[in-house]
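Worked example 3 (structure in, sequence out).
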């Protein structure tokens, strides 16, 4: 059975991860989203300029600008997806902890 790189132990699936380990994964996803978001913020927004007044330069600049906008949208969507995944993992873990606490407290009374 392969070693789980996040947990550092030999586990068959992520289903056996502890709440702390899942929150650590959420933190890794959130950190990566922040790193990528910061990199996207540094991308200049003025796009490609035409090299000259000829029709080929205008068409080339327009095509490059459309492609770069498409790539940026794709990366922005990826960052949003990473943040959503991190938030979902955190929310699910917190709900699980609350349910476990409620079940435990139910047996104490």
């Amino acid at each position: 059975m392969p070693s789980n790189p996040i947990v550092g132990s030999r586990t068959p699936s992520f289903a056996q991860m502890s709440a702390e380990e899942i929150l650590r994964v959420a933190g890794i996803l959130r950190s990566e989203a922040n790193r990528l978001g910061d990199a996207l913020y540094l991308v200049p927004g003025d796009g490609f300029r035409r090299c000259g007044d000829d029709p080929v330069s205008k068409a080339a600049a327009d095509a490059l600008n459309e492609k770069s906008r498409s790539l940026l949208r794709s990366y922005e969507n990826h960052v949003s997806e990473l943040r959503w995944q991190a938030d979902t993992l955190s929310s699910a873990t917190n709900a699980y902890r609350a349910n476990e606490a409620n079940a435990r407290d139910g047996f104490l009374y």
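Notes: The domain at 18-108 is CATH 1.10.287.850 (Helix Hairpins). Residues 55-108 form the longest helix (54 residues).
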